[in-house]
Amino acid sequence: MSIETPKYKLIKSDKKFSVRQYEKHIEAKVFVISDSHSSAGSYGFGLLADFIFGNNKKNSSISMTAPVSSREFKSEKIAMTAPVSTSKQKGKSYTVTFIMPSKYKLSTLPKPNNSDVLIAEVAPHQEVALSFSGLATEGRIINKINELLNWAESQSLKVTGEAIVSRFDPPWKPGIFRHNEVSFILAS
After folding, report:
1. Spatial CA neighbour of 96 closest among 113, 81, 117, 111
2. Phi, psi of 108 (to 5 degrees)
3. 10 Å Cβ neighbour count for 85?
4. pLDDT in tens, the chain (188 residues)
5. CA 156 to CA 152: how far, in whole Å?
6. pTM of the complete model
7. Domains (ranges, CATH) in the chain?
8. Distance from C-alpha of 74 to C-alpha of 54, rounded to nearest angstrom
């Protein structure tokens, strides 16, 4: 059984660098306060995993016109996807994100019981990315972000926003075999 990853069209590839066109998708995200991408990812993962493992409400009533009091609400397990992404905001604030499985629309995705979990539809967009293997330590992340920014500048690509750090593998996978990426959304 494979884990779903975001769908994209490869626009340009240069060894470990790429430019991608991503399709519209839905994401679940939380904002956390942390000292690093790693600790933010660990804490945020727990909140998001709680949501997809069933701490949510799915309206199982056939009729959406029935009064709320007569509708039956149940939870639903949502399949895990990859990657788990973190993006540093201001100060010690980070966003941690899961992409939702492509079978869902905003209207069919269960609603989180935890108000800290936010659901948003992400418009189609382009990103520039750098893939790397091994452990995604803070030092490596900073080096890879700088490497990606230098490559983007050499290609006359204008990035926007903060770097997105994406980890595709579970923590028990040996570091040498892990797949990671840093990316930026490209300015339109």
Report:
1. 117
2. -110, -10
3. 23
4. 589 999 999 999 999 999 999 999 999 999 999 999 999 999 999 999 999 999 999 865 444 555 555 455 689 999 999 999 999 998 899 999 999 999 999 999 999 999 999 999 999 999 999 999 999 999 999 999 999 999 999 999 999 999 999 999 988 899 899 999 999 999 98
5. 6
6. 0.89
7. 8-59+73-186 (3.20.80.10)
8. 9
